[in-house]
Amino acid sequence: MSILASTLLLISVYIGEHFLLVGLYGRKSSLQRLIRPNASAKADLPFVLLYEVGFRWLGHWPKLICGPGILYLGVGWALGWLEFAGPAQSILPTDPWLLAIPVLLALDFPLYVTHVAMHRVPFLWRFHAVHHAATEMTIANGSRVALAEYFFGELAILLFMTLIFGAVRPEIILPILIVRNAIDMLQHSDLPWHFGPGGYVVASPGFHRMHHSSRPEDRNANYANIFAIWDHLFGTVAPRYRSAPLSASDCPLGLNDPASAAHYNRIVGPLLCTLPADFLEAWCQGGGKHSRATSPFLSQ
Ligand SMILES: [Zn+2]
Ligand SMILES: [Zn+2]
Fold first, then answer.
1. pTM for this prediction
2. Measured CA distances, 149 to 83, 273, 279 (Å)
3. Which ligand does the CA of 140 lie closest to?
4. CA angle, corner 64, sides to 59 and 70, nearest 5?
5. Spatial contact of 118 and 297, defined as CB atoms under 8 Å apart
6. Which ligand ends up closest to the CA of 129?
7. Chain segment 68-91, per-residue pLDDT in tens
8. Distance from residue 225's CA to the centre of ligand 1 (Å)
9. Ligand nearest 187 Cα, by number?
10. What is the rounded distance in angstroms from the CA atom of residue 156 to the CA atom of residue 298?
């Protein structure tokens, strides 16, 4: 998709969300939040520039600025040469619409696993916290992801899918990634949608909103990226969401520690979270140079 087409599509998504939220629900839209941004929405913008503009114009080089990026490209290159046929490849349907289902599931499961790890391993939480520092839901929140997290997730997908299906051709992945991005944007809008019974299958905006709650018991749950079935299967649905899903629309968002929130809502967020120095800093934090009580990086 050309840059012009994807930009026009993005603009129409924002306009559509605006009319839905303001017209139907009387809630603030992403456009309104980004036009008059508070600290949280301001911190979203550099991430949008990095991922939506930087990556498109600059190609692969930003990926090389951190170790996992090199690994990502290296594994991708090796897989292209090895042409490994995974055990499930022979039973994959040939119809592209049917093929999309197992591919989507295989893409989503490693994301669920890495997301759980991001919350439970303090070293990884340090990177993921930048996503949770947002105090407002906007479509742009989906881009608010540390480069390191982006690579952990992509690497997990690449390895898992290769083990199952063998080397996956990019032309299969591309439409799937477009679907994934569309769901990701929908989840980060403030639409009070729960999808009814369909919410047991696909993670709704309400389901993900509760994951952005500042209450740790809400936040350390509802990990689904696309399919909520993983959370239902592994018992990681927030208890409050089970009993009162509509409460997700009003729960306070962000981190429970103001010092951490201020740290991660700085405009230099992408710089804080993408450079190799960040790994070193996170390593030092994890290694106990700062106590848990004083470190903003370990607050969960
Ligand atoms: Zn999370
Ligand atoms: Zn999110």
1. 0.80
2. 27, 9, 11
3. 2
4. 120
5. no
6. 1
7. 445 555 556 665 555 556 666 666
8. 9
9. 2
10. 23
